[in-house]
Amino acid sequence: MAEASSVNVGSGCAEKGPEELSQEPARPGTNISRVKLFDTMVDTFLQKLVAAGSFQRFTDCYKRFYQLQPEMTQRIYDKFVTQLQTSIQEEISEIKAEGNLEAVLIALDAIVEESKDRKEQAWRPSGIPEKDLRSAMAPYLLQQRDALQRRVQRQEAENRQLADAVLAGRRQLEELQLQAQARQQAWQVSHDSQRGLLVGLEPNRRWVLSTIQMSSWCLLWPLDSSLPGANPPDPEQDRSPDP
């Protein structure tokens, strides 16, 4: 198992690093994506890390234990290297996910490809800080100003709509108040007229009752005129004077 480990370490040392890959001439018409280059750099780093912490160095630190338990020492070393590689790969994956690194590298590749077709020269500082600051900040500030103006216009339009809605509600409320007042006045007039009618009928109420009573006596008197009190009363005597 020690021999197999030394073979793996030797193969790791034989791998080329990122600086060696960058020194090799790229094939014409081929572009290495930055995502793949980043993964290659991580793999090369892990290989060099394992090579730096070889089994020989590990046993030098634990000579007495290696002499007593060589196979156990080999298993501990293999497990240590495996867990170390796994831990580093997981942390790098978390960093890539948190920073959205793959999308950023892909966007950078796209920017580089687009810049190849441009004929105008790229921006260079003029050496005057004020001028460079204006040239860099002016487009951003103009963009922000336009965005604020559009937002103000939308807010003003919403305010006008709200004002129109408030005015319409006030007009509707005024119309309802006028209708309520008109109905109240009509009810008051009807109530006053009914009250006046009742007041006008009050003096004749007793006379009407006496007339009804007289009519009843007239109908009953021919049947039994011998009964005491059979003579019909005089309605003129029972009629009370008008108040």
Automatic annotation (TrEMBL):
A single BP term in Gene Ontology: cell division
UniProt keyword terms in alphabetical order: Cell cycle, Cell division, Centromere, Chromosome, Kinetochore, Mitosis, Nucleus
Main location: nucleus
Keyword match S-adenosyl-L-methionine: no
Entry GO CC: MIS12/MIND type complex; nucleus
Keyword Signal: no
Domain of life: Eukaryota
Disordered: annotated span: 1-28
InterPro entries: PMF1/Nnf1 (IPR007128)
Cell compartments where the protein resides: Chromosome, Centromere, Kinetochore; Nucleus
A Pfam family: Nnf1
Coiled coil: none
Record protein name field: Polyamine modulated factor 1
Organism encoding this protein: Bos taurus
Gene that specifies this protein: PMF1
